[in-house]
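Weekly structure sync, notes
Attendees: PL (lead), two postdocs, one rotation student
Agenda item 3: pending single-chain targets
PL asked that the sequence for the first pending target be pasted directly into the notes so everyone works from the same version. It is reproduced below exactly as submitted, 207 residues in total.
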Amino acid sequence: MRPGPRTGLHDAGVIDDGTLARIGSPAPGAVGVARKGPSAGAKTSHGTMADAIVGYAAQRLGHHEPDGQCFALVDHALREAGARSAADFGPVVPGDDYVWGTEVSLSDLTRGDVVQFRDYVYESVVVTETSEGTRTEEWREGRPHHSAIVERVGENGAVTVLEQNSPDGAPVTRTTLYFRSGESEAEGRTTTITVSGTLWFYRPQPA
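Predicted structure, written out during the meeting:
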């Protein structure tokens, strides 16, 4: 099964293969193939599947999920929560755009959903006006090919995800990313977010 329609974003320019452009980090490694985790029917202490998925990943913050790839974290979290994983929706081949459940829109994205990235980049430019002058701060993050779990959906397109192997070799971490371009102003500060690439959003399904 191939992914459904893609989320429309601006066409990407030259993509930085690193995760943090400021430090020129190396590209994430190839995503590993699916592997069977514990029984899909395993009970969890959480009241909902979403809580179980997020809880599994959050408990592993700072640690590596075998085999250290982003795929492994999402695969194990879904299977431990009793959800179907990518291999249940069709053959899994490294480099593919994986399917993790039922596709949903960005506006419907919620805790426990899974994001699949392809050539994703967000750029943030913050311009602050003070009595001493104007200060400009820039930030850039990219995920060329990646999978992550949604922990929290915030305001202005900010989404906190739990992920592994970003940058290359990193353990499970908590990161805030932006999936919607836009501009906001507050207290003399103007923030402009530009998002490019392709994103798919999936709602995990019971096994």
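Discussion points:
- Helices lie at 49-58, 70-80.
- Residues 39 and 98 are 21 Å apart (CA to CA).
Action: rotation student to compare against the earlier draft before next sync.
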